[in-house]
Amino acid sequence: MTAHAQISDPVSEAPVVSREDLEEIFDDIRSHAVYDHEIHGCLNCGICTATCPSAHYYDYSPREIVQLLWTENLEGIYDAMQEKIWACAQCYTCAARCPFENSPGGLVMIMREVAIKHGMESAKEVLRPFSRVLLKVISTGNQLAPNMITKEAFPDWGPNVSRIDAPLNILRKAIPMPTMHTLDTAWEVNLKTSVELYTIWEATGVLDQLETVDENLFDVVSDVMDEKREEWEEWLEDNEDEDDDD
């Protein structure tokens, strides 16, 4: 096979993926900072799959993930990144059981990051329902409040969302942590902290990844954070003027 040979399934309508692209994807996985800590070999014993909760319900096998990476099966790795890696629940039972101290769950996390980096459709589909959560966390630095989760707000979650119909006020108060008693956000995030977090996300490439998987959400977040930066600059200027007056 030549360096520029292309990989495709003759009965699939999926676009052809070049050998060069497959190698780039694997190189991104292998060059990850923790990759060498997560894979050390494989006896093909199957203990990880036998104890994996996801393997009992999905077409997913932690052993397959390790084998694909260990043998550098580029086509198989790409195929697994289209669906299988999103079935892992990240419970790390596999890592606790593996006699080689592999961490299939950790490897899956790396593969997910690379899938996002390359803008794979599988990553976009998986993350799409969480766009509201991402917007809330990134724009306010806080989590969703339980009273925001309603059937009307999340029609794309399907009929099972009706299960959230519950006396939230009562259930919330049953949680012993005082900050969890509220139906609003548990705390207000300082403006300076918000700007600093945005700067960190920008510098570490988090926002670049967000733009890759959800351009519309990226635009909204960028607008929100531009406004916060302006507010912060105005606050600094106002306080400088006060200092000068003193």
Q: Any key phrases for this structure?
A:
globular; 246 residues; Fumarate Reductase Iron-sulfur Protein, Chain B, domain 2; 53% helix; mainly alpha; two-stranded antiparallel ribbon
Question: How would you describe the overall organization of this protein?
Answer:
The longest helix is centred in the C-terminal third of the chain and has 31 residues, at 215-245. The model has no long low-confidence stretch (mean pLDDT 83). 20% of the residues are buried. The chain contains 13 helices and two strands; from the N terminus they run ββααααααααααααα. The protein is globular, with a radius of gyration of 23 Å. It has 246 residues and is mainly alpha-helical. The protein has helices at residues 19-30, 35-38, 47-50, 62-70, 74-80, 93-97, 104-117, 121-127, 131-140, 168-173, 191-203, 206-213, 215-245, and strands spanning 6-7, 17-18. Strands 1-2 form a two-stranded antiparallel sheet. α9 runs parallel beside α13. The chain folds into three domains: 16-118, Fumarate Reductase Iron-sulfur Protein, Chain B, domain 2, CATH 1.10.1060; 126-142 and 188-241; 144-187, no CATH class.
Low-confidence segments, given as residue ranges, are: none
Distinct helical segment count: 13
Number of domains: 3
Strand tally, please? 2
Major β-sheet profile: 2 strands, antiparallel
Please name the CATH architecture of the largest domain. Answer: Orthogonal Bundle
Portion of residues in beta strands equals under 5%
In short:
This protein is an all-alpha fold.
